[in-house]
Amino acid sequence: IGKEISKFFASKGATVYMVCRNKERAIAAQNELVHATNNQNIHVLLGDCSLEKDVRRIWNEFSMHQQSQVDSNVCKRDALSSSSSSSSNSVNIRLDALICNAGALGKTKTLTEEGVEVTFGAHLLFGTYLLGKLALPTLVKTPDSRLIVVSSGGMLNTKFPSWEVATCSGDTSFDGQLAYAYAKRGQVLLCEKWAEQYAGVPVVVSCHPGWTGTEGVEAAYGSSKSYLEPLRSLWQGSEGIIWLALADCDKIKSGE
Of the listed 180, 182, 198, 227, which one is catalytic? Predict the structure, then answer.
């Protein structure tokens, strides 16, 4: 779904940053999208969204790259206008939309090198909460910006549990389906809180792409995915997310 969304925005001339974990697959996807869209402004930020250190580095790399683009544009503008009054310090980097879509459904409990359960870290703690908190100051300064969190209808099966259960830090047995549902429920609750704190800009929303035929669904469910059928195509799973990123702000209620 992330690749499909990236392809759409790149085809419309947007500058796109894809956060990817696997370097070889990321470069292959980047080359494919550049060829398909004829847009050279498709960038890869390599990192694992279940790791705090990677998420912080990803944001720093994005910010530094954006600042270099701002500085370059200001220099070009100054050269054209022969003006010495312009300064890159007066121009903010921008982020029109942050789409938090990272994650997977694991079958066994796995801790990262930082000691955090992968599902909780990738979906909620670092992949949404930390990345969102790092991005929010820039989103606030960007008119009509959006923070879109891709949750799942799977969270409808359960309420958000105790912190010990949600983080898989207790003695309870691990259930990948429940760990996934808890993290997805947490994403929705987080969006509600952010919408209260940041009234107006950015618009903060969570969404469910529908049960979509992705590699992740295949890996998680295998032949048992038949009970989710009919599965949506990648485009069908992506179009609602794209609409949230492009629709007029007055058509979207923040926090929902």
Answer: 180
Strand partners, 100: 149
Contact between 182 and 224 (Cβ < 8 Å): no
Q: Which of 206, 207, 203, 208 is nearest to 253 (CA)?
A: 203
Query: For position 70, what pLDDT does the model report?
Result: 79
pLDDT: which is higher, 120 or 214: 120
Distance CA 186, CA 80 (A): 50
What's the predicted TM-score (pTM) here?
0.89
The reply to whether 182 belongs to the active site is: no
CB 202 within 8 A of CB 95: no
- Show Cβ contacts of residue 85 under 8 Å, excluding neighbours closer than 6 positions: none
231: left (phi over 0), alpha (psi -120 to 50) or beta: beta
Measured distance CA(133)–CA(129) in Å, rounded? 6
Secondary structure percentages of the chain, helix, strand, coil, to 5: 55, 10, 35
- Which H or E run includes 203? strand 203-207
